[in-house]
Design goal:
With about 325 residues, the protein is α+β, with helices and mostly antiparallel strands. About 60% of the residues lie in helices and about 10% in strands. The chain has 15 helices and 9 strands. A hairpin with a 2-residue loop joins strand 6 (about 175) and strand 7 (about 180). Helix 2 (about 35-55) crosses helix 12, helix 9 runs parallel beside helix 14 and helix 14 (about 270-295) runs parallel beside helix 15. Residues about 25-40 have low confidence and may be disordered. The protein binds zinc ion. Zinc ion binds near residues 157 and 190.
Length: about 325
């Protein structure tokens, strides 16, 4: 009798182990690294997003020009000090940017400040990482942390967002009929600008920011900032297409999205997924370096060499790019 019980327990344990094994296998399949699944995902995404590109607006092309004095006269005079500092800084730092979207959104924005570990944060239904800008509601929610640029990051989103009947755009992010494109690059560039204008002691979107920095090096600082404030992803893709095919340029933006959406704590701590992420990051950077080399005849040296212990780009790869081998 005793042996039968032991046998049943043994079988149950084996069954549970098999379930855990199958579970881990399924988790591995969810990553978009460079494998069969990835290629399928990219092609499928590309077809869907190619369509987005075709309907991408040259946002704000014919908007009226607003000068700084008119701008100050037209904004709500009771804005918060920190919001006013943001406005002063970007109007001073960026000379020729379009400030229409900032003007459209700033006067009726709702700002919710959350304290870390406070009662309303713990029980709040809003689960945000550091901050969030809800484009449709024109509402910012952020954690008030000393010396962080959380609020300014969200204000950059506000200053570059627009809602139309059938689409939404925010900087280089574009949403149309349940499809979206440009999330990763937009977050990276937003954080890069936030850090430059409002240095703080917290940093986010490290990889996206580095990728945005490489793209800025190709396009040029002033030009990229202008496109960002006009929420003009189409012109950015056209600009990249001068040195690669349009299809490659769109795929690059999609790959950055894939990387950014999958760059989670859970994936980094799964060795299979982390390796796939490193491969995707390598692929993204090779694309950018090739564009950079074909435009400037020299390589941008600010590439990311390592991801979570995995090698990404090294001198061998850069030499292969220079020699046209890859
Ligand atoms: Zn953001």
């Amino acid at each position: 009798m005793k042996t039968e019980y032991l046998l049943i327990i043994f079988l149950l344990l084996t069954f549970i182990m098999i379930l855990i094994w199958i579970g881990s296998f399924r988790r591995k399949l969810t990553i978009y690294g460079y494998n069969k699944n990835t290629k399928y995902k990219l092609i499928r995404d590309h077809k869907r997003k190619q369509h987005i590109y075709e309907v991408l607006p040259l946002s704000l092309k014919n908007e009226e020009f607003i000068n700084k004095y008119d701008f100050y006269a037209r904004i709500n005079q009771n804005l918060d000090d920190r919001v006013m500092k943001f406005i002063d800084k970007i109007l001073n730092d960026f000379d020729t940017i379009n400030i229409n979207l900032l003007l459209n959104n700033i006067n009726n924005v709702k700002i919710n400040k959350l304290k870390l570990h406070s009662f309303n944060t713990i029980f709040s239904s809003i689960k945000i990482s550091n901050g969030e800008y809800n484009i449709k509601k024109n509402e910012i929610t952020y954690y008030d942390i000393n010396n962080s640029n959380n609020l300014e990051h969200e204000l950059f989103h506000l200053a570059t967002s627009k809602v139309e009947d059938n689409f939404m755009c925010s900087g280089f992010y574009y949403y149309f009929k349940d499809s979206e494109i440009g999330y990763g690059l937009n977050e990276g560039y937003t954080q890069l600008l936030s850090n430059r204008c409002f240095p703080g002691n917290q940093d986010f979107y490290y990889y996206e920011k580095s990728i945005a920095f490489m793209i800025e090096d190709i396009i040029g600082k002033e030009k990229l900032i202008k496109l960002y404030f006009k929420a003009d992803l189409k012109s950015l893709i056209d600009e990249l297409s001068k040195y690669s095919s349009t299809e490659e340029a769109i795929n690059l933006i999609i790959k950055i999205d894939c990387f950014s959406k999958k760059n989670s704590y859970e994936n980094i701590n799964n060795s299979f997924n982390a390796k796939a992420m490193a491969n995707l990051l390598k692929d993204i950077q090779i694309n950018i370096l090739k564009i950079s080399y074909s435009k400037k005849n020299k390589l941008n040296v600010n590439y990311i060499r390592e991801f979570n212990g995995y090698k990404v780009i090294d001198d061998i790869i850069t030499n292969q790019i220079i020699n046209g081998i890859i």
